[in-house]
Design goal:
The complex is a heterodimer of chains A (286) and B (289).
Chain A (H helix, E strand, L loop, with lengths): L3 H34 L4 H5 L2 E2 L6 E2 L2 H32 L3 H16 L2 H15 L6 H37 L4 H30 L26 H10 L4 H30 L11
Antiparallel strand pairs in A: 1-2
Helix pairs in contact in A: 1-9, 3-4, 3-6, 3-7, 4-6, 5-6, 6-7, 7-9, 8-9
Chain B lengths: L4 H35 L11 E2 L6 E2 L2 H31 L3 H15 L3 H19 L8 H37 L4 H12 L1 H17 L2 H6 L16 H8 L8 H36 L1
Antiparallel strand pairs in B: 1-2
Classes of the chains: A mainly alpha (286), B mainly alpha (289).
């Protein structure tokens, strides 16, 4: 048996460790919100950057829209490929080798550092194919990064929610593909959507893949896919490392954080409503 | 029932593109790094060499960056591990379930933050603290990067160790309480040894994650291609790539050397991650018994 003092020591140590981690977590959010909220104004949100050097005045509106475009497009690429590949693994592949191959590609891609996608995207798309730095290139590079992010989650979702349907449909003589379209996809739609939305949030915050493939310091809102764009995280990075404006860096970080937190809350509330939170008294529990 | 070509086509296309992406990346990594490996050979990993890609007599020694990457990541995991496990223990044993779930999802949210924001905060808070409190001329150093990375790793370590602590609790806690052993004694002598292996697994996975972190580390480590010291500047391989990629020519030895550096990092990374995954899988099998 431990001595009382020793037990007390263990307890105090654990309390300290726990409190410090929770404080740091809280502190990060509070700090960004506190420092950022003083910068936020309507003109910061709705105007383009101006001033000399550029970024010291005006706002970040093109960057907000650019980040959203980029996130949507990259999320679309990543989730279309990821969900497709996951469906192939779970439902359609007849050979174990192919299944394993796709599985390996998921794990391989998920292990790669994000800068590798920037490196490959830059050499292949910009150097090799001679494309310009553009929204499309950046979204492809980021989309590659999101394939495993969606794929691994989608595989789990489809395995858990889809497999029972397939067995029953097959025993009724319905083709697999029809069952997937009419039964599995509608049932797992919200979960797949949440996975894609999380991927979008992840893609929106990434800098490394788009640094050299499409993001620039100043651009208007892109009207076509082959135009360069402004991105909030890249803008933040430039503001900080070039020492342009610390004040505006706080504002940019604030906007980026809010955008990403909105997506996270959206995803969480979907899960909450689906599972039926306990605070809804009118919903009877089984 | 009629067959559905759209769904089948989507699945097939997704599968092909996923495998294609992997093959393309592997192909380009090998193809582009080959010239550097063939031409520079031992010069890439030279204890006395330097990284001077732009001088008249260029030398490409990536050993300092590899060591710096390993060092920073090790530092980060070494700091994050005790804090993460301690927090998981605290939340599991001393906090009510609902409160713990709230804090866990809160800490989890940290994982969703973009690394640029971490880098930014590291620069304004950590680096400045090093400068004012420790009177360093520049606060950008390996230790700052290690601490920052540790904060970024916390969510992973907390959530994985929380899970394994819960499993161990289910398995052993009632028995040990029935023996009349105090909670703290069981934590130290029963739970901690029981989750030893899963700690090792999460160490490996967190280490792998830390190795590849780009932006946050790049913003606080100072980026000098020299051998790393705790309070000195250094440069990691992802940071090196991100910084120099914009100024290289296609087909140059410089680009090839960057590729070679990344390939070396990937080899280490996949050994680390592979061990982690194998360990985790083994543990899962053990749990099912």
């Amino acid at each position: 048996m431990m001595k009382y003092s020793k037990r007390l020591g263990v307890r105090i140590l654990l309390f300290l460790l726990g409190f410090s981690v929770i404080t740091v977590t809280l502190g990060i959010f509070v700090y960004v919100f506190y420092k950022g909220s003083s910068v936020i104004s309507l003109s910061f949100l709705l105007e383009g950057p101006s001033g000399i050097p550029i970024g010291t005045d005006g706002g970040v509106f093109p960057a907000i829209i650019g980040t959203l475009y980029h996130g949507l497009l990259a999320g679309l690429f990543g989730s279309l490929i990821g969900i497709g590949a996951a469906m192939y693994i779970v439902f359609f592949s007849r050979h174990r080798f192919l299944r394993n191959l796709i599985q390996v590609s998921f794990y391989f891609l998920s292990g790669l550092p994000s800068i590798i996608f920037g490196l490959i995207g830059y050499t292949v798309l910009i150097f090799r194919f001679g494309l310009d730095r553009s929204l499309l290139c950046a979204s492809i590079a980021t989309g590659m990064m999101l394939i495993p992010f969606v794929g691994i989650r989608a595989q789990k979702i489809l395995q858990e929610e889809g497999e029972p349907f397939i067995k029953e449909s097959l025993s009724l003589g319905i083709s697999k593909a029809y069952a997937v379209r009419k039964l599995v996809l509608p049932v797992s739609f919200t979960n797949l959507l949440s996975a894609s939305a999380l991927a979008m949030a992840y893609g929106m915050g990434a800098v490394a893949p788009l640094m050299y493939t499409g993001a620039v310091l100043f651009a208007n809102i892109p009207e076509r896919l082959d135009q360069p764009f402004m991105s909030l995280p890249f803008h933040l990075y430039i503001l900080v490392t070039d020492g342009i404006s610390m004040e505006y860096a706080y504002g940019t970080a604030f906007v980026l954080l809010v955008l990403i937190l909105i997506i996270h809350f959206f995803v969480r509330s979907i899960g909450f409503f689906r599972e039926g939170g306990e605070w809804r008294p009118w919903k009877k529990k089984n | 029932m009629r067959n559905d070509p759209i769904i089948k086509g989507w699945a097939l296309l997704g599968a092909i593109l996923a495998v294609f992406t992997m093959t393309m990346i592997v192909y380009y990594l090998i193809k582009s790094s080959l010239p550097a490996f063939l031409e520079i050979k031992g010069g890439l990993f030279d204890l006395n060499g330097e990284w001077r890609p732009r001088s008249a007599n260029p030398s490409y020694n990536i050993l300092p960056m590899i060591l710096a990457t390993l060092f920073v990541s090790f530092l980060a995991v070494a700091i994050a591990l005790p804090f993460g496990i301690g927090t998981a223990m605290f939340l599991n044993f001393y906090v009510r379930r609902k409160t713990a779930a709230f804090f866990l999802s809160f800490i989890d949210m940290l994982a969703g933050l973009p690394s640029v924001i971490f880098g930014f905060l590291g620069l304004v808070l950590l680096v400045r603290w090093f400068e004012t409190q420790l009177h360093m001329t520049t606060g950008e150093c390996v230790l700052a990067a290690g601490i920052l990375l540790a904060v970024m790793l916390l969510p992973y370590i907390v959530s994985t160790s929380y899970e394994s602590i819960q499993k161990a609790e289910k398995r052993y806690m009632y028995a040990s309480l029935a023996m009349g052993i105090s909670k703290e004694h069981s934590i130290i002598k029963v739970i901690l040894p029981a989750i030893r292996k899963s700690i090792l697994a999460s160490f490996m996975l967190a280490y792998g994650r830390a190795l590849g972190e780009t932006m946050a580390v790049m913003m606080v480590i100072g980026n000098s291609p020299i051998f790393p010291r705790l309070f000195g500047r250094a440069q990691t391989i992802p940071a090196l790539t991100a910084l120099e990629l914009g100024s290289v020519e296609y087909g140059s030895l410089h680009l090839s050397a960057l590729y070679a550096a990344n390939v070396s990092l990937l080899v280490i990374l996949f050994i680390v991650l592979g061990t982690g995954y194998l360990l985790q899988r083994k543990l899962k099998k053990y749990d099912e018994i």
